[in-house]
Write a structure and sequence with these properties.
Low-confidence stretches: 118-123
Number of domains: 1
Protein name: Probable RNA-binding protein EIF1AD
Shape: globular
Order of helices and strands: HEEEEEHHH
Mean pLDDT: 79
Number of helices: 4
Organism: Plutella xylostella (Diamondback moth)
CATH superfamily: Nucleic acid-binding proteins
Strand order of the largest sheet: 1-2-3-5-4
Keywords: RNA-binding
Oligomer: single chain
Family: Belongs to the EIF1AD family.
GO molecular function, one term: RNA binding
C-alpha cells in the first residue's frame, strides 16, 4: 500500500461519522503532554497519569496536542507504557459520547461544552476559529482612544 493510500484510509477512519461506543476495556483520557517517540502522557478520569503509545498507522498522519481527548485500550504487559491509542476524539465524537452518557463527568469543562453544544446553523461564528495561545490577545479599541476623542472635541 502506498503512503498516500495509507494516509487516505487512516484519515477516512478518523473522520468517519459512524461513531462507536467504547468497549469495556477502553477508556477516554486527556493528553497532558507529548514525551516524544510517539509516546504521550495522559490523565485518566480518576487522575492517574501514565504513558500511552501511538500505533504505527497513526504516526506521521494524525497529531494530538495537549488538552486533546483520546480513546485508549490498556496494554496488560506494560510497565511504563500502559495504554495504546485507539481513536482521537473530535468534537462530534465527544458530543456523541455525551449523548449516550459515556463521557466521564471529571472531564466536563466549559470549553468542550461550548464547542459541542453550539448550533450548526451558525456557520459565520468566530468561535470555531483557531486561537493562537502563544500570542497576547490585543483589542483594537481601548479606553485611551475614547478619552483622546473626547479631548479633541473640547
Amino acid at each position: 500500500m502506498s503512503k498516500t493510500t495509507k494516509r487516505k484510509h487512516v484519515m477516512k477512519e478518523i473522520l468517519w461519522d459512524d461513531f462507536e461506543l467504547p468497549k469495556e476495556n477502553q477508556s477516554v483520557v486527556k493528553v497532558v503532554s507529548s514525551k516524544g517517540n510517539n509516546l504521550h502522557e495522559v490523565e485518566s478520569h480518576t487522575g492517574e497519569i501514565y504513558l500511552a503509545s501511538m500505533p504505527t498507522k497513526f504516526r506521521k498522519n494524525i497529531w494530538v496536542k495537549r488538552g486533546d481527548y483520546i480513546l485508549v485500550e490498556p496494554i496488560l504487559e506494560g510497565d511504563k507504557v500502559k495504554a495504546e491509542i485507539v481513536r482521537i476524539m473530535n468534537k462530534d465524537s465527544i458530543k456523541f459520547f455525551k449523548e449516550n452518557n459515556v463521557w466521564p463527568q471529571e472531564f466536563e469543562d466549559k470549553k468542550v461544552e461550548s464547542v459541542c453544544d453550539k448550533n450548526s446553523d451558525d456557520s459565520n461564528s468566530d468561535d470555531d476559529l483557531f486561537v493562537n495561545t502563544n500570542r497576547v490577545n490585543v483589542n483594537n479599541y481601548s479606553s485611551s482612544d475614547t478619552e483622546s476623542s473626547s479631548d479633541d472635541n473640547t
